[in-house]
Design a protein that fits this description.
Layout lengths: L7 E7 L16 E2 L2 E2 H10 L6 E6 L17 E5 L4 H9 L7 E4 L9 H10 L7 E6 L4 E4 L5 E5 L5 E10 H13 L7 H7 L5 E4 L10 H12 L3
Parallel strand pairs: 1-4, 1-6, 4-5, 7-11
Antiparallel strand pairs: 2-3, 6-10, 7-10, 8-9
Helix pairs in contact: 4-5
Length: 230
C-alpha cells in the first residue's frame, strides 16, 4: 500500500491554439461567464488545499496569460510549453521534484470540482501506479468504416471516457512519457504513456460535467454547469 503523496504539483498544458473553436484567440482565453476558461480552471486548482504548486505551460508567443488575475498567484509558476501536449507536460514535469506527484489537467476543462480532485488524490493510497478521472460510456457505441457506414455496435460495458486530471508520480511519468515519445508511440494523454510502458492505471469515476471545451457549443454547456455547480 502506498502512502499519501507528500507533495502534489498540478500541471496545466496551455500552449495550444484550439483551432476547432474557430476563434481568433486561443480557446483557453475565451470568456466564460465572468472570466476566461483558463481562469476558471486555475481558480479550482489554486484554491485546493492539497495542491502545493500549479505549473502552467504556455506558448512562447502567448500575449494573454500575463493579464490574467491568477498570473500573480504565489502558488503559480509559468513555463514555456511545446508544440504538442506531451511536450508541455514534460516542461512542467521538469520543474516538479522527483518525489512529488503530478496532477495533469486540461486547460479547457473549467468545470472541475474539488470533490473529484479529492477522490483522485485519495486513490494514490491504494493505487501507487496512478489513476485518472473518467466517466462511464452511457450511449450506444457504433464503429464505422471510412465512409461512415456502421460496421458494428460496440459493447459499452467497461468503456470509459478519459477525463482529467490524471495523477501519477512525477519520476515515473517523466521517464515513461520521454521514452514513449522517443519510440514514436501515439500518446494522447498521460495514461497512454504509462500504458505503453506496461503500467496499468486505474479509473476513478468522476463527474460527467467535467467537460472539455472543444467546440463553440461547449461554451454554453460549460456556462450552465458553472452556474449550477454545487
Amino acid at each position: 500500500m502506498s502512502q499519501t503523496p507528500k507533495q502534489i504539483i498540478a500541471i496545466v498544458p496551455a500552449a495550444g491554439i484550439g483551432s476547432r473553436m474557430g476563434a481568433e484567440i486561443p480557446k483557453q482565453y475565451l470568456m466564460l461567464n465572468e472570466q476566461t476558461i483558463l481562469g476558471h480552471t486555475l481558480d479550482c486548482l489554486l484554491s485546493h488545499p492539497k495542491i502545493d504548486k500549479v505549473i502552467v505551460a504556455i506558448n512562447p508567443n502567448d500575449d494573454y496569460f500575463a493579464d490574467l488575475p491568477q498570473a500573480s498567484h504565489p502558488k503559480l509558476q509559468c513555463v514555456c510549453g511545446g508544440k504538442e501536449r506531451a511536450d508541455s507536460v514534460l516542461a512542467g514535469l521538469n520543474l516538479a521534484g522527483e518525489g512529488a506527484w503530478a496532477l495533469v489537467h486540461d486547460a479547457a476543462r473549467p468545470c472541475l470540482t474539488h470533490l473529484d480532485i479529492d477522490k483522485l488524490i485519495a486513490s494514490a493510497t491504494v493505487h501507487p501506479q496512478g489513476a485518472i478521472l473518467a466517466a462511464p460510456v452511457r450511449d450506444t457505441m457504433k464503429r464505422t468504416n471510412a465512409e461512415g457506414v456502421i460496421t458494428a455496435t460496440v459493447c459499452r460495458d467497461q468503456l470509459w471516457h478519459a477525463l482529467t486530471p490524471q495523477f501519477f508520480p512525477v519520476k515515473e511519468l517523466t521517464h515513461h512519457l520521454t521514452a514513449a515519445l522517443a519510440a514514436g508511440a501515439l500518446i494522447t494523454d498521460e495514461a497512454s504513456a504509462m500504458e505503453w510502458a506496461g503500467v496499468m492505471p486505474v479509473v476513478i469515476s468522476g463527474r460527467a460535467d467535467n467537460i472539455k471545451v472543444t467546440h463553440p457549443d461547449d461554451l454554453q454547456l460549460a456556462s450552465l454547469f458553472l452556474k449550477n455547480s454545487i
